[in-house]
Structures are given as structure tokens and as C-alpha cells.
Amino acid sequence: MMGGRVLSSSAGRFLGALGARCWAGRAERPCLTSWAVYSDSQLIWTLQSKSWVFDECGTMWFKSYRKTFASLNRIKSYRQPWTRPYSTSQTTVDSNEVKTFLAMAHKWWDEEGVYAPLHSMNDLRVPFIRDNLLKTVANHHPGKPLFGMKILDVGCGGGLLTEPLGRLGASVFGIDPVDENIKTAQHHKTFDPVLDKRIEYRVCSLEEIVEDTEETFDAVIASEVVEHVADLETFIQYCCQVLKPSGSLFITTINKTQLSYALGIVFAERIMGIIPKGTHTWEKFVSPEKLESILESNGLSVQTVTGMLYNPFSGYWHWSENTSLNYAAHAVKSMVPGHSGPTEIVFKGEKEEPQAEASTIPGMHEELKK
Q1: How far apart are CA 304 and CA 306, in angstroms?
Q2: Among 144, 164, 149, 294, residue whose Cα is nearest residue 223
Q3: Cα(333)–Cα(336) distance, integer angstroms
Q4: 228/101 Cα distance (integer angstroms)
């Protein structure tokens, strides 16, 4: 990452020392790209920085063979302004993850295939979501306990969790950046006319709809998703933004521990082949403590964190007090006094307002009704 022009021996030593320092610190921070031109009486620096911010003091010391140079204001002058919160210019989609799931898009509804653990996980996560949402309502319809609730299923894949929530009466909006996933989900819901009315799908990322759906949803679900996003903190910000005050965020994910690496990646992917190799990246796993910190910094109060264990031989999940592998979290958005009314997504069936017209999904603005 270092480039330089022809230098005297003194300047050559200088650049060599600076290059070594860059490589040594590569794991901690990105390096600075620099060019130097040396003359007998003057060393002129031209510094080009990237969009990140340098060290805490904003100061970097450079040493040559004979002289010590301090550079403070020059580095600061290249500093880019901070990105404002909730900027939709930040993407949460990892293109490598998109390629991974695109290759498996046709396998979502194979209950004996690579997504078998997710089919089985519904035995835990559906009641977990249902029971926690029912705590927020005084009365509910016996056959459709989630009737009247609007739920956003982020990273819905082929609709494995979207459909059972629709059967519980909720109006569910499923989004996924992989086009083939949404095609699979769209096709599968047509087998049940009831679901066809309660579920809407769209190929998009969360940031693409965050402005149009601010404070729209009673619940947002990110199940087995946060370990695949490009920027976890930005992702949580967007989830919070589309939630109504007192709305619920449900997350299931994998803890970042040595055990999760040994079992989740080495055993499950490389030895047993329960899931395809490369599905997970251990560096993206997140501990419950870090996740709770991010949630609370965005105005979400964590209600529950509980462990989940999967038995690969029986194919079943069960709850556990141990969160060292998989875990589920439920958080609630704090009330905001004087917040504006939410934008309403209109679904094709079972509307709270009988006069509302059915929606198609050509674009978000056609789906939204003030």
C-alpha cells in the first residue's frame, strides 16, 4: 500500500521504516497512502487519506534518518465529516453473502436439506415471537392471535419464518436482497390462498425501505441474519427506525466463542456438512453482551436473552441457559413522546380498514398509505 518516488538514501530509510510500521499496524487500522519527494533542503509531504479517522490525538509522528517531523493539521484537513445516523448511504448487505445464498436459493423448502435446521428452529422461534408479542396486547383472536400486527421479516430467505407468522394472523412484509430467494418465497406462498393475502415480499435491503416505513412495524425479526450483515451497528439502527414505539425486535444468532467456532464452523460445515462450507464467518458472530450494548445504545430495552441448542443427530432444537452457541434475544423500543404517526403498509387481505384497496408490489410508494 506504500508508494514512493526515487529518494536519497536518507529518505529511502525513512520510507522503509514507515512501510514497516504500516504493515505492523495493519490489523488495527487501515494504512495511510503517501508519496514523498526529497530535496537537499526540504521534504515535502503529500498525504492522501481515506474516509476513516486517524488516531485519537489526530497526530502522527514520522521519523527519518536525521529529522523528526510532526504532522497534525495536515492530516486533520483530509478528514471526512462524520456520517449522520441512519444515513441510507450505508449498506448492510455483504455481496459475498449474497453470492453464498444465491447458490442455495432453490433449497429453502427441502426439509431434509441444508435448511433443515431452520425448519426445525421454527419449533422454538415461532412460539418465542408469538408469546412475547401477546404480552403487549390485552385481547387477541383465538384462531389468529397476531391479527392486526404488522411484522417485518428482514432477510426472510424463502419465507420459512414468514409463513407461520402469517398463519398466526399477522400481516408480514418479507424482504431479502437475493432475488432468487424472493422468487422461491413468492412461489411457495401461492399454495395457501390465506397466506397470499397476508404476506408481501420484496427484493431489497433494509436501508432501501427505512425512510418509507419509519415507525411502521409492531415487530421486526432478524432471525439468523445479523451474522451475515456487513455492518451490525447500522443494521440495528435501521431496525430501530422502522419499529413503532414499544415495538419488538427479535433476533436469533450465534455467539462469538471458541465453542461456536469449533462446533458451528469446523464441525457443522467442514466435518459433518450439515450446512455448506463458507456459510458462516466466525468474525461476524456477536456475543449477547455486545449485541445488548448495541441495542440499548439505539433506544431498545433488552427483555430476554436465552440460549438455544441444536442436536444434529435428532435434528431438534431446545432452549438452554447456555448462550455459548446459539441464542435468541427480544428487545423493545422505548416510547418516544410526540412521535409522528406511522406510515401504513396496505396488505391484500384481512385489513383493519375495509375500504383499503389491495396492494401489489411494484414499488414501495404504491404499497404505502398514509
Answers
A1: 6
A2: 164
A3: 9
A4: 10
What is the tens place of the pLDDT at every residue in 308-345? 999 989 999 999 999 999 999 999 999 864 444 444 55
Q: Which residues contact 83 (CB under 8 A, 6 or more apart)?
A: 89, 90
First to last CA, the chain: 52
The C-alpha atoms of residue 202 and residue 317 are separated, in whole angstroms, by: 30
Beta-strand ranges (E) seen in the chain are: 33-38, 43-48, 60-63, 68-71, 150-154, 171-176, 199-203, 217-223, 243-254, 300-311, 316-320, 326-333, 344-345, 368-369
* Cell numbers for 256: 462469538
22 burial class (0-12, 13-18, 19+ CB within 10 angstroms)?
middle
Write down the pLDDT at residue 345.
56
CB atoms within 10 A of CB 82: 8
Predicted pLDDT of residue 212: 84
- DSSP 8-state assignment for residue 271: I
Which ranges of the chain have pLDDT less than 50? 1-88, 337-343, 350-370
The contacts of residue 260 (CB under 8 Å, 6+ apart) are: 254, 282, 285, 324, 325
**235, three cell numbers:** 443494521
Angle, helices 232-242/288-297, rounded to nearest 10 degrees = 50
